[in-house]
Amino acid sequence: MTADRRKRHLKILELIETRSVRTQEELAEALAAEGWDVTQSSVSRDISALGLVKAGGAYRRPEAPARNSEDPDERRIAEGVLTVDTAGDAMVVLHTPPGEANRVGVALDRLAWPEVVGTLAGDDTIFVATGGRAQQRRFVRQVQELTRPA
Questions:
Q1: Residues whose CB is less than 8 angstroms from the CB of residue 120 and which lie 6 or more positions away in sequence, other chains included
Q2: What pTM did the predictor assign?
Q3: Residue 145 is inside which H or E element, if any?
Q4: Is the pLDDT of residue 67 over 60?
Q5: Hey, what domains does the chain have and what are their CATH numbers?
Q6: Is the pLDDT of residue 22 over 80?
Q7: pLDDT at position 63, please?
Q8: N or C: which terminus of the chain carries fewer CB neighbours within 10 A?
């Protein structure tokens, strides 16, 4: 996925979290108002890629799959992490819905996974420092396992 597409997906998630978006045309207009050059067909592909559903007539993220884990911090990660990307040999970048990064970051800190040296959370992005390449790979696998659909 390109960086622009990832940014557009994050913007779409922000838009549907902060307002009622009922049609693809409304979403295309909202994106255009934010400076994105999109067509109805590209918006349709984005909706499909994000797995958005309609609830009460408006687009929403699908409900998180039920998890077997009883750990509330693992559930927070499963429900809050949208994307997982590596940066260099020891950094992982996690994207969350707007306003969720701090909560997911706290959950990561509480879990105290040995691969994690530290976390830094903003509004919708978390930087996770790991101990090196091997720890980075293990951390990514752990997060992907939690976020994988059941």
A1: 105, 126, 127, 129
A2: 0.68
A3: helix 133-147
A4: no
A5: 3-60 (1.10.10.10), 73-147 (3.30.1360.40)
A6: yes
A7: 67
A8: C
